[in-house]
Amino acid sequence: MAHEEDALEHERASWKPSPGLAVAVPDPVQNPGLPPHRARMTDKDPAAMTRAVRTVYTLFYLSLAGSIWATAAYMLFPIESGRIVDIRNNNLFIGLGIGLALLALGLGAIHWSKAVMSDKEFIEPRHATRGRDATREGAVQAFRDANEESGFGRRTAIRGSLIAAVAASILPGITLFRGLAPHSDKSTEEGALAGDPVALLKQTMWKEGERLAHDPSGEPIRAADVTLGSAVHVIPESLAELGHSEGYLEEKAKAIVLLMRLLPEDLPAEHNNLDWAYDGIVAYSKVCTHVGCPVALYEQQTHHLLCPCHQSQFDVSRSAAVIFGPAARPLPQLPITVDAEGYLVAKSDFTEPVGPSFWERH
After folding, report:
1. 147-200: per-residue pLDDT in tens?
2. CATH number, residue 216
3. What's the helix, strand, coil split of the chain in %, to 5?
4. What residues contact 257, with CB distance under 8 A and at least 6 apart?
5. 204 and 175 housed in the same domain
6. Peptide bond connecting 46 to the previous residue in cis, omega within 30 degrees of 0
7. How far is CA 120 from CA 36, 39, 107, 208, 309, in A?
8. Whole-model pTM over 0.90
9. Gene3D superfamilies this protein is in (predicted)?
10. Which residues share a beta bridge with 211?
């Protein structure tokens, strides 16, 4: 079989056409060229061109109005009150303004390119790129031609409306940055500002003698009932007595605590304030110091607390120090002890602001 295959291969290699035999050679693919140019209505009718130009700059001015409205909505519907309706209106009307601004700007640019700009096809031959004077002059001429074809230089209404719309489109974004700035209100006493995060987040409902209670039942917690390795969600007893009245959620968001019990030997004195713990029981703010998510995942073998939002980890055996993630500081600790009846009580409020770090904090 191998000898037969070698013979066939040799025969194919040595074959040559007979002198009188014609061999068909396919023709190369011909360049079909550009299709015939199809004139648009705006190319044939000056009135149609006028209407198209008017539509373009109307859309650009509509975009301008949307940007201005989004900026105004930020001030007309402030979210500082904290009311749900104000927050809803703020998000709704700012979003509608920004959406209108970007949609109208995009539609105007598309209509301009399709109906007003020159759409004649042309062939641009390739050539080597050189930094010669002729090349630079050609580039300048290309910009001149583009300006002529687009009508940017001649059509002042389109040019002016486009520049105004693009410039105004960044205003809502700049305005929203105002929400990151500190707010001040001189209505509080002793120089504390009502809008100051330090004052707002440093004072919670915890006070000396305040009993620790289960969340949400409000049942006080006995130290003897806290088992080793457990993690209990805690609120002040007086907060539970308020019920879901005005301001309940705001106070709970600041005062929520996670209570854990470790072996006393797992709390080395060099890394912990043992005066703030009771028989291995410690209490830390449940509000992550990164952006305020609830830190509720406790690993009892390693004594680590995990924030599920951005994976910050805190070591409970070392005063809730940050061991991983973007959080910048430990969780604030609530000093606790027991009363005469064996119930866990707070020794004081937190000694530092709870919640995320911020630039006003010293």
Report:
1. 788 777 777 888 888 888 988 888 888 887 776 665 555 544 444 445 566 677
2. 2.102.10.10
3. 45, 15, 45
4. 212, 233, 234, 235, 283, 284, 285, 286, 334
5. no
6. no
7. 10, 9, 22, 82, 54
8. no
9. Rieske [2Fe-2S] iron-sulphur domain
10. 345
